[in-house]
């Protein structure tokens, strides 16, 4: 089987993405799989800042030794670590779209994305809420955001929207779709036969029999009943505060949370070096880091590359399974 060809998108030029790429270059086994979509100048500056060797080569060149990295250049307007300059937004978005184009055209087998500063793209006029949503739109398909570590997978019904809008967004149709996509991915991408999924409630204590909210009775329970009748093993709706107890996690393959900050803090609380962000439902694998742009430490050589390197490994393994992900 040939090696996976991964499009790796640098992300925010002012953040830690460039130094993560510079670390990647020190690992020729991984770098051989990757082509970076991002600014050559920024990656060179990051390598200098953190004191590692870098030899940028053409996009079609082979990787023969440590330090080499294939880069397709998306020049930036300004380069300063710790600052997300909206004038670079066009380059950030062009790199992302070009990586996606490469996957859609079959030139790449999967995409790995570095962290993007949502606020900077907004300031530049882009209607960007997240790469998950960009991928859904570009691939014209429904997707699910799942963050995964070795011992925990958390999928989200809603992703990047104000908390105020969450209850109305959690509709029976969206919940059913999320559960179907998550269940299918657990079977195909994660090779789990007959997976069991824990589904959280929306309200404190999962609504406490309607005393603390009605979404559990009116929206969540009926969808679970429908899908259980088809044979899906679903537990819930469970109160979110206790659903992550080790005893419950031990018997479940994934947790489906209703909104971003209901599920992700649990996953990120043990550090930002163990998990990755996987978009389920796409025609090709997409894996991202579990952390953000970390402007506060960019260019200082203290950022952990672990989630980034793990994202490359997970993406490569998803490609190698050769199992349809959509
Ligand atoms: N994959 C993505 O594109 C992605 C993911 C999360 C957040 N974001 C975006 O990133 C921006 C900043 O978000 P934030 O401040 O909430 O989260 P963040 O993850 O950037 O930073 C949170 C804290 O974790 C630290 N940190 C992050 N990554 C680290 C690493 N690899 N090694 C060591 N320490 C690390 C930071 O220094 C900071 O103290 C926002 O615009 C957010 O939307 C993007
Ligand atoms: N929700 C993600 C997280 O917290 O890790 C992050 O914002 C990135 O999402 P996208 O991959 O959709 O940009």
Automatic annotation (TrEMBL):
Reaction catalysed by this enzyme: 4-(phosphooxy)-L-threonine + NAD(+) = 3-amino-2-oxopropyl phosphate + CO2 + NADH
Complex formation: Homodimer.
Main localization (coarse): cytoplasm
Cofactors (names): Zn(2+); Mg(2+); Co(2+)
Keywords from the named record: Cobalt, Cytoplasm, Magnesium, Metal-binding, NAD, NADP, Oxidoreductase, Pyridoxine biosynthesis, Zinc
The protein's name in its UniProt record: 4-hydroxythreonine-4-phosphate dehydrogenase
Class of the enzyme per the UniProt entry, highest EC level: oxidoreductase
Additional remarks: The active site is located at the dimer interface.
Cited InterPro entries: PdxA, PdxA_fam
Enzyme Commission number(s): 1.1.1.262
UniProt record similarity statement: Belongs to the PdxA family.
